[in-house]
Amino acid sequence: MTASPPARAPLPDTPGTPASPPLGATPNLWRRMACWLYEGMLMFGVVFIAGYLFGTLSQTRNAMDNRHALQAFLFVIFGIYFTWFWAKGQTLAQKTWHIRVVDKAGQPITQARALLRYVLSWVWFLPPLAAYSFGVAAVDVLVLTFGWVAIWAILSRFHPWRQFWHDAWAGTRLVHYEPPKK
């Protein structure tokens, strides 16, 4: 009689078997969306300074001149902003809402992973941008933007750890973070 080999526990990254999440609870969806809205308000300051810098350096006199170059410039500035702060752990809005970006193991993320997360986070805006490029009216694009953001946020409910899908694809997580008491 031959003995059967002992059963092995599935590996944590085996498809279909979600690993137990690393330390740090996932913030609820309302808190993450409030942080996202607050981040948007803070970005007005970044856009203002970057737009002023771009307009001054390019000698742009009319807002419609160099519009596509300005958009590309802002995309790069946003990438620098988010990559820098996420690699440090959190943006100002995330610090306010006690949310931190970590990798799957609960460690701080690298700048390369932060950049990947930034690029993948634009999935939130792909359908509205595509609609706008096909000539859909601005009001309809605004409605589509709010609808798609709501759908994208709700889709996080289907992730095993309730993370946004761009975080899953980038190998990152949003976790609750309490700073140490001084």
Structure characterization notes:
The N and C termini lie far apart (65 Å). The longest helix is centred in the first third of the chain and has 30 residues. The protein is mainly α. The relative contact order is 0.15. The protein is globular and about 50 Å long. It has a two-stranded antiparallel sheet with strand order 1-2. The protein is 55% helix and 5% strand. It has seven helices and two strands, in the order H-H-H-E-H-H-H-H-E. Helix 5 packs antiparallel against helix 6.
Write a short abstract of this structure.
The chain contains 7 helices and 2 strands. With 182 residues, the chain is mainly alpha-helical. Strands 1-2 form a two-stranded antiparallel ribbon.
Task: Please specify the SSE layout and strand pairing.
Elements: H1 29-58, H2 67-88, H3 92-96, E1 99-103, H4 111-121, H5 126-133, H6 138-155, H7 165-170, E2 172-176
Antiparallel strand pairs: 1-2
Helix pairs in contact: 1-2, 2-4, 5-6
Structural class: mainly alpha
Strand order in the largest sheet: 1-2
- The share of residues in extended strands comes to 5-15%
Shape summary: globular
- Would you identify the regions where 5 or more consecutive residues have pLDDT less than 50? 1-18
Task: For the record, give the distance between the C-alpha atoms at the N and C termini, rounded to a whole number.
Answer: 65 Å
Helix segment count? 7
β-strand number: 2
Please estimate the helix content.
Answer: 40-55%
